[in-house]
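comment on this one:
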Amino acid sequence: MTAGLSGTTAPLQETFDVALVDLDGVAYKGAHAIPTAPPALEEARRAGMAVLFVTNNASREPETVAEHLSDLGIPCAPGEVMTAAQAGAELLADHVPAGQKVLVIGGAGLHTAVAAKGHVIVDSANDHPVAVIQGFAPDLAWKDFAEAVYAINAGARYFATNLDLTLPTERGMAPGNGSLVSVVRTATGVTPLSAGKPEPEMFHLAARKAGASRPLMIGDRLDTDLKGARAANMPGLLVLTGVSSARDAILAVPEERPAFIGADLSTLEDIHPEPQLVDHWWHVGEARARVTERHLVVDGGEPLDRIRAACAAAWAAVDAGESIDVETLPHFGVAS
């Protein structure tokens, strides 16, 4: 898969057989569904596209996630959820045999996932665990991190569900699991093996769970959702309803670039034209863009097509060794 924008001749929901959908910033923000999400996902299902929700949240059970989504008007069964806790438990099972003692630092979802793999869960380094696995939970405290440090310093292997530095909340960005992992890593000098996005294994697990042969990852963060899609050799759709903005997409490094860009989940109903290079301009629909003397020049068309053309022009320029004056990037009228 090339590190550029792709195109389709049919709507995304007909081109791909499953949507692997991130939660916060894509399906909902805080306690509320993103308004376009419920009808868009309902229409995608009607078109024959399966939906599987993929989240780096390791604190909640799949049943809790499914209930939350259903309450927001997005019908969901527990089997349609893949959490970082489940991916972390899979990673742990690949390295630690069932029946071994594991210190779990995290929420109920992680405890359930690890227990389901046949490991013996302990809550103290004094129980001599062979491994520690850490996931996010809002009620974790100093004593939890201390037990992890004691166990790792005594020789336990170290795993993490994900390494997200931040976590979106209704009040703004808050410390995520990666920030809390940094506490333990600083105290031990040990970097954990991680299972969650952007590691490719979580995407492969989700696609297998859905029985998909043509999966599409949908996310709002370049550094987790889209980077993971690239790592898994899977097309990724960036929606501009969460963390990463149009400006971020234009400046994205190759390993984080989306294959498709849309305002929100309603873009699943759209055909996505592939950018075309004509006379030094990158064209998408009626929009066009080029980089000249370090300046990104964009005109014509709809805002989203301007963003797509701008990405094509900027990425081609950067990949050819040119630089872009980021201070003069245009505004596109599509806010994230």
Notes: DSSP finds eleven helices and 19 strands in the chain. The two ends are 26 Å apart (CA to CA). Residues 303-319 form the longest helix (17 residues).
